[in-house]
Amino acid sequence: MSKTVSITESTTESTTERPKIGGITATNIVIANIIGTGVFTSLGFQAIEIQSGFALLLLWVIGGVFALCGALCYGELGAAMPRSGGEYHYLSEIYHPVIGFLSGWVSITVGFAAPIALAAMAFGKYIAQLIPGVPPMLFAAAITIVTSLIHAQNLQLGSYFQNATTSLKVALIVIFILAGLLLGDPQTLSFAPTIADLSTIASTPFVVSLVYVTYAYSGWNAAIYLASEIKEPAKNLPRALLVGTAIVTVLYVALNFVFLYSTPIEALAGELEVGYIAANAIFGNAGASLMGGAISFGLVSSISSMVWAGPRVTQTIGEDFPLFAKLAQTTLAGVPRRAIFVQLAIALVLIISATFEAVITYLGFTLTLSSLITVLGVFVDRYRHPDRPRPYKAWGYPVVPLIFIAISLWILLFVLRGNPIESGVGLATVAIGALVYRFARRAGKVAS
Could you give the C-alpha distances from 18 to 25, 298, 317, 331, 373, in angstroms and in order? Predict the structure, then answer.
């Protein structure tokens, strides 16, 4: 078992108790990390070939079940091994340090920076409509820089910012849902299951749509990346994963119901701006612009949660590998400022070059592979380390992890067959990580 090496910019800080974040903030990080642009865009593509209200909502229910199964399994691992770093730490402990490093390598390079860039670009495009004449890229870069600077100060400021932006996002979505139910004109689309739905659920379009729905749920594991900074992680970490994911599942299903309930499905099919179209049907043009802008500002909480979580993986790797030791250094407040700025630099490169769309395409493959191996690790860890203290055990074991593994394998096989180039690039990224690992091992002995 590896031993944490604490590297700080001040030797006097080691005797000082650093502040921790509570369960509410950890839950908000999960919620903010999951809810991004996906839920406001995916339905349009699903509705092109799926015209059943029941089947469309079932997609989001299945996606929620998939995420909850993953959260239950990660909760057990997080409670048993409460150290920041996420999959990097778990896979290093359960399998071998090289397996953990490969997962961490993906997180360091693009795992967080690319989604940050994507959310920032979406934010920039909308703000540019409100303030014409300014390139969206400038707004995207500005919000990324400001958010990174906030989290580079201290945990308290980052916690306040995260809680405020997430609360605003959830409140706006709840208002949107209630307004749709109260003000929307009911459509003729039926949500009751029929015999015809069986063939729809077994069809290729349904399978394809499920891939994108599960991606819209990605982020359910966000709290594990900063486990060391959570108060009573054995209790609060599993709770944050489960509660956060459950809240988002309810919001996702309700939101898509409102989209279909208030807006003709013909108007949604094939459209990217599903949220704006539905808002227009509910509030009219002026109200749609206002609500669309408010929801777009909700992207700030997504950017914030990823800016917070990502550098903790880099920090943990730096604690274990002397080659990356400088990235593990923290401020007196315990913030990995250098790791934050490295992630900021990568995100800004992606924003400026606008090449991150290709990265996002293959990112789902590599992240799904990482989470699959991690959930499989629940079985491996119980077998190899039967005496390890487990304050929390995954509910529904072994059925729950098997459900997650089965869906993950299906996604990987589908993406590998349908997108061989992107999958190949994802595997190539892992291969590069293996070379970096060998170099890091030679550059200095891994902390033990």
Answer: 16, 30, 20, 11, 33
> Exposed, middle or buried: residue 275 (CB in 10 Å: 0-12, 13-18, 19+)?
buried
**CB-side exposure of 167: number of CA atoms within 13 Å?**
8
Phi, psi of 230 (to 5 degrees): -100, 135
Q: Residue 422 is encoded by which pair of tokens?
A: 């992107």
- The rounded mean pLDDT for the chain is 85
Cβ(63)–Cβ(213) below 8 Å: yes
The answer to whether 262 and 177 have CB atoms below 8 angstroms apart is no
Structure tokens at 10: 């001040």
Task: Convert the pLDDT of each residue in 216-246 to its tens digit.
Answer: 898 899 899 988 889 998 899 999 999 999 9
Nearest alpha carbon to residue 189 among 271, 266, 277, 251: 266
Give long-range contacts, CB 8 A cutoff, 24+ apart: 384-389.
Answer: 384/94, 388/80, 389/80
Kindly state the tokens that stand for 63: 């996606």
Per DSSP, helices labelled H in 263-324 are: 265-268, 274-297, 299-320
Q: Helix-strand-coil percent breakdown of the chain, rounded to 5?
A: 75, 0, 25
C-alpha 378/C-alpha 95 separation (Å) is 11
Q: Is 154 helix (H, G, I), strand (E, B) or coil?
A: coil
Question: How far apart (Å, rounded) are the C-alpha atoms in residues 292 and 193?
Answer: 32
CA 377 to chain centre: 20
Show me where the domains of the chain are located. 23-443
> CA 115, 116, 118: angle at the middle one, nearest 5?
60
Who's near 188: CB < 8 A, 6+ residues apart? none
Q: How many residues does the chain have?
A: 448
CA 227 – CA 77 distance, rounded (Å): 11
Q: Does domain 23-443 have CATH number 3.40.640.10?
A: no
Neighbours of 131 (CB within 10 A): 8
Helix or strand holding residue 327 (H, E):
none
Q: Is 330 helix (H, G, I), strand (E, B) or coil?
A: strand
Q: Are 147 and 305 in contact (CB under 8 A)?
A: no
Task: Write out the two tokens for 136.
Answer: 């969206």
d(CA 292, CA 279): 7
Tens digit of pLDDT for each residue in 54-110?
999 999 999 999 999 999 999 999 999 988 888 999 999 999 999 999 988 888 887
Tell me which residue of 380, 315, 403 sits closest to 76, measured CA to CA.
380
CA atoms within 13 A on the CB side of 365: 24
Q: Are 34 and 267 in contact (CB under 8 A)?
A: no
In terms of Cα–Cα distance, which of 247, 226, 234 is closest to 31? 247
Residue the block writes with tokens 């997180």: 107
